[in-house]
Design goal:
By secondary structure, the protein is of the alpha+beta class. The protein contains 13 helices and 16 strands. It has an 11-stranded mixed beta sheet with strand order 3-6-7-9-16-10-15-14-13-12-11, sandwiched between helices. The chain has a 5-stranded antiparallel beta sheet with strand order 1-2-4-5-8, with helices on both faces. The two termini are about 35 Å apart.
């Protein structure tokens, strides 16, 4: 579902606000910005609405002769107005920061946050990437709680020859081992390999459950609610050539896969799956990242995004071995009733009950 209702406009303190944001204006801003990720495009919101119970609540702001900006928002469908959440984005959908052709003036940034603070919703949240202009951080009202993250990004500016040199020696050795082992790699941009990717993702869920001491049935229920097959199919169908599934097979059997998305100068590693006991000895996962990064360089991308992970975790160490650096990034949340805190307390209690082991 693209729109939640008729488009409305209002003028607040000289700021014209239109919701949902006009598609042409939003797409124009995303195309003009070198900072915008694929997760900040209107098509990404369409994927969210098509695969979960959300409506388009995006807001387009115009102020004087500025080019305007869009705050992507998805509103939970079917909840009472005062309990509903409006997020950019819902959990596991990534960065949904404001989209603008250039950084807004401080007055405009403050006005946008003040407008978001007034929305008749229990929760409003916006997630910024590490490339966000400092003007946003300085404009956050006290009503918003700051949520810190560490986002890992590999700079591709020097081309693949330079990137290869940034790989740790262990990574280069792993790549050569995968190549010598005879790993077969296929890349698909039509969605054909999504089912194979998802089957490997299910193997990863089982492995993560075992590592975390989480009952497998609970892990599958939880992860499949967050990442159902239709989510990946929808993204692949929507973005076509901009969504690549890289699949590694060994002796005729799929053993590892990654999904990589592209928009402008940004390539984004999104999800992966593998049969670890088969993929690790031949370093199939590392080989896939090498090939996807090489492809991103060849197609003119400047950055390869690895997403968030806690510093010093095994996941962040893997990203650093591939040359990525961790950068601070922030989300901001305004909430009236502490439903998020209550949910976190409940989840924490369940984790303690089952002996869940954090990464």
């Amino acid at each position: 579902m693209r729109f939640s209702g008729p488009r409305t406009s209002s003028i607040l303190d000289g700021l014209r606000v239109t919701t949902p944001a006009p598609r042409d204006a939003w797409q124009r801003l995303a195309d003009e910005s070198d900072e915008a990720l694929i997760t900040q495009t209107p098509d990404w919101l369409d994927c969210i609405c098509a695969t979960d119970s959300y409506d388009d609540a995006s807001r387009f702001y115009e102020f004087g002769d500025s080019g305007g900006l869009v705050v992507p928002l998805a509103r939970r469908r079917g909840w009472p107005a005062r309990l509903v959440a409006q997020d950019a984005w819902p959990s596991e959908w990534g960065i949904g920061a404001p989209v603008a052709a250039e950084a807004p003036a401080p007055r405009l940034a403050r006005a946008v946050f003040e407008d978001l603070a007034r929305l008749p919703s229990n929760r409003v949240s916006v997630r910024f990437g590490p490339n966000a202009d400092p003007v946003w951080q300085s404009a956050v009202p006290s009503a918003f709680t700051t949520l810190p993250h560490t986002t890992y990004i590999l700079d591709l500016g020097g081309g693949f020859g330079d990137v290869w040199g940034q790989f740790r020696g262990s990574v280069r050795t792993a790549v050569r081992k995968g190549e010598k082992a005879g790993v077969d790699v296929e890349v698909d941009r039509t969605g054909r390999l999504v089912p194979a990717f998802y089957a490997l993702y299910q193997h990863s869920i089982a492995r993560w459950a075992e590592q975390a001491n989480e009952p497998l049935a609970l892990a599958r229920w939880r992860r499949n609610r967050i990442d159902p097959l239709r989510k990946f199919q929808t993204v692949a169908d929507t973005f076509a050539e901009s969504c690549a599934v890289w699949l590694a097979s060994y002796e005729g059997r799929p053993v590892a896969a990654i999904m990589v998305l592209r928009h402008g100068p940004h390539a984004k590693y999104w999800r992966s799956g593998m049969i670890k006991e088969l993929a690790n000895p031949i370093r199939a996962g590392t080989l896939l990242h090498k090939l996807a990064i090489e492809d991103a360089c060849a197609t003119g991308c400047r950055f390869y995004h690895f997403g968030d992970s806690p510093p010093d975790s095994s996941v962040s160490v893997f990203k650093e071995r591939l040359g990525a650096r961790g950068y601070p990034s922030f989300g901001y949340r305004r909430e009236v009733l502490p439903l998020t805190a209550g949910d976190q307390l409940l989840r924490g209690a369940v984790k303690r009950l089952i002996g869940f082991k954090e990464e």
